[in-house]
TrEMBL record:
InterPro entries: Trp_biosyn_TM_oprn/chp, Trp_synth-assoc_CHP. Residues 1-21, 181-222 are annotated as: Disordered. It holds the Pfam family Trp_oprn_chp. Residues 201-222 have a biased composition (Basic and acidic residues). It comes from the Bacteria. Residues 188-200 have a biased composition (Low complexity). Keywords: Membrane, Transmembrane, Transmembrane helix. The keyword Methyltransferase does not apply. NCBIfam families: trp_oprn_chp. It comes from Streptomyces gobitricini. The chain crosses the membrane at residues 30-53, 73-93, 100-121, 149-169. This is TIGR02234 family membrane protein. The keyword Transport does not apply.
């Protein structure tokens, strides 16, 4: 009878090809998140400064043109784009639970900016405020109201920030952390610095004073 012990059965191991594929997937997701987050935030900041709404108001027998930029309509997309950029950088400075929280913040920033931009696409309050200011009549309202495509461009760009946050939530565990790299590099530098430190010169004045404090005679030959 042939006996086969449990210890003799080889355990499956991850192949080098599997490890390489996982590392490659992590690099691709990292590059995609960086690109989507940075590009989305840049477009949101740019589009928020463009004209979102146009109209006119009657003044004296004529009309005065009015226009409202994205920042006049709502400042939420701009603020959340800045928060998203900060969170995108912070993802690499934290680990574990901290990385999960920052990734969640990144995704929420994109979602919030998209919703705010979409709602601002039909907002008229900014033009009505301008109409009241131009005419001096608090009841004045803007007429011939039209909206541009910039609010929708802002919302679409904000969705890129959301996508970056979702990638960070899904693949962030395999991404490198800046703090870990710096900690690894600090050890060798410290060791090299200690090896390169020159021995103290006993003839230097401060060394003579230290010898006197220790009760030694610095003039005595060793």
């Amino acid at each position: 009878m042939v006996r086969v012990s449990a210890a003799s059965v080889p355990q499956p191991r991850a192949s080098r090809a599997d490890e390489t594929a996982a590392a490659s997937g992590g690099r691709r997701s990292l590059a995609a998140a960086l690109f989507l987050g940075a590009a989305g935030a840049a477009v949101v900041l740019l589009a928020s400064g463009q004209t979102w709404a146009e109209g006119t108001v009657a003044v004296g027998g004529g009309t005065v043109p009015l226009n409202a930029a994205g920042g006049d309509v709502t400042g939420v997309p701009t603020a959340l784009a800045i928060v998203g950029l900060a969170a995108l950088v912070a993802v690499f400075a934290v680990r574990r639970a901290g990385r999960f929280l920052v990734s969640t913040l990144l995704a929420l920033s994109g979602a919030g900016a998209a919703v705010a931009a979409y709602l601002g696409a039909s907002d008229r309050s900014a033009l009505d405020e301008q109409a009241a200011s131009v005419t001096g009549d608090a009841a004045a309202r803007a007429g011939s109201l039209t909206h541009t495509a910039w609010p929708y461009a802002t919302a679409a760009a904000a969705l890129l920030i959301l996508a970056a946050g979702l990638l960070a939530l899904r693949y962030g565990r395999s991404w490198p952390a800046m703090s870990g790299r710096y900690e690894r590099d600090a050890g060798p530098r410290t060791a090299r610095s200690s090896r390169r430190a020159a021995p103290a010169d006993p003839e230097r004045p401060e060394e003579l004073w230290k010898a006197l404090d220790r009760g030694e005679d610095p003039t005595r030959e060793p």
